[in-house]
Design goal:
The chain is α+β, with helices and mostly antiparallel strands. The protein has a single domain, classed as HIT family, subunit A (2-Layer Sandwich), CATH 3.30.428.10. β1 and β2 form a beta hairpin. It binds adenosine monophosphate and zinc ion.
Length: 116
């Protein structure tokens, strides 16, 4: 079920613009609007799941992870890349719809943050 005031649900529905890089029946991916690295992709479940804390569907969890890796391969990030899932307030999550950050294209610092 979509959440009316959720930015990623709106992008999914097409009511606000977003550069869709991938879409299947379970997930979609967009370019992050404020990229922290040359490649910064968000992999997002189509269903409104607030965060990883709320994720109960194991098949969806697998699909999100697989698509993240697939998009990293497509972006030719053979030298390495990072997957980040900020979760809830202390995890630094700003958009309350689960999303996986795929970051790469430069040497990332060792800090465990999407903002390295
Ligand atoms: P987080 O802090 O993990 O919740 O990350 C939210 C991410 O969503 C940030 O990296 C934002 O730059 C990104 N973001 C916010 N609004 C948009 C948008 N309209 N299109 C693409 N990315 C967005
Ligand atoms: Zn949503």
């Amino acid at each position: 079920m979509a959440s009316d005031d959720c930015i990623f649900c709106k992008i999914r529905a097409g009511s606000i613009p977003g550069k869709k890089l991938f879409e299947d029946e379970l997930v979609f991916a967009i370019a992050d609007i404020h990229p922290q690295a040359p490649t910064h992709i968000l992999v997002i479940p189509k269903e409104h799941v607030a965060s990883l804390w709320e994720l109960a569907d194991e098949r969806l969890a697998g699909r999100l992870l697989f698509v993240a890796a697939e998009l990293a391969r497509e972006a030719r990030l053979a030298e390495g890349w990072r997957l980040i899932v900020n979760t809830r307030e202390h995890g630094g999550q700003e958009v309350s719809h689960l999303h996986l950050h795929v970051l790469g294209g430069r040497a990332l610092g060792r800090m465990l943050s999407a903002r390295t």
